[in-house]
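User: Predict structure, ligand NAI.
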Amino acid sequence: KKFRLAVIPGDGIGKEVVREGLRVLDFFEQNSGGKYSFESDFFPWGCEYYLEHGKMMDEDGVDKLRDYDAIYFGAVGFPGVPDHVSLWGLRIAICQGLDQWANIRPVEFLPGVPRRLNHPEADKLNWVLIRENSEGEYSGVGGRNFTGRGPGKEVAVQSSLFTEHGCERIIRYAFDLARTRKRKKVTSVTKSNAQQFGMVLWDEVFEHVSKEYPDVETDQWLVDAMAAQFVLRPEELEVVVASNLFADILSDLGSALSGSLGIAASANLNPERRTPSMFESVHGSAPDIAGKGIANPIGTIGSAALMLDHLGLQEEAEQLNQAIRETTRQGYLTRDLGGTHNTEEITDAIIDNLGKI
Ligand code: NAI
Ligand code: MG
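Assistant: Predicted complex:
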């Protein structure tokens, strides 16, 4: 089988880490005995493209991606282009345009990685954050300059949009996933004391859906208390489902607690498989370290494992995750994890470990 991949390296370290992920995919292809291959088409979209063409991607960009088996994405955003322009012009445009409504963000506590989380059982933690990826706080509803009463008087409105359909499908996704896991627990996060419309709807849908899953344990938290809970009672968490903004924030917290933003992988899924899903690390383009060859490629390589799994190559996905764990266990660490290895050396070690499996 030939898998057709749309590759969007994007900006900053996005380009550096996607290159590494593709080296890993090459390794799999070469060792597949002709069983499968990857054919990559590159799309040069991002901030440089914007500065040249005045747009982050082609007008029909989303349509150009429609027929691929998957999209492999680096990161977007660079000084010189406002962040809201670059994010909305590319990443959000693709996620929403292709209805990738479920963003899956596993948080793994890898061996050999210095922990930011001081917990005796940190090695056993294995969280997965489920982020609503199509609406909520990132609905784009609102506008600037509502009063127009002159300088210093501007009013901006930014609305959150919650639909019963949108809440139900992401919450159901979380329950279905929880069922496949050891602990069988879903924690829902809102702020429904202060956000009295959309988030109360979310809570009601959560309670209603949970009745269909009597075998799954549930828990409901307000986001501020949840942030503390991540640090204080991490053993209470397994599958955590939250809105677009809250899960975005909590996943950076989760990945930092597990070591670094650089190791967090993610999948933007269209679970019905009507459109291609997109695989990318959680981190951004990290302009502060771009071009130095020191970015941690594990988040993006781990995202390739999620992509392999999605493409039906479960065994390969498991092998890749195993090779990543073996690599950190052996002490191959980039600077964000207190090590001295560079980007390529981490990939070399992962490929080396894959060869031994
Ligand atoms: P960031 O994730 O790019 O960087 C935050 C910090 O973590 C920086 O100190 C960076 O050096 C470090 N870091 C991130 N990834 C790393 C890696 N793989 N290895 C080692 N260190 C790593 O977030 P920041 O600085 O807030 O945003 C930079 C740009 O990225 C902005 O333009 C922002 O809009 C964009 N962004 C894009 C995202 C995407 O494409 N999905 C997600 C988040 C931010
Ligand atoms: Mg983020």
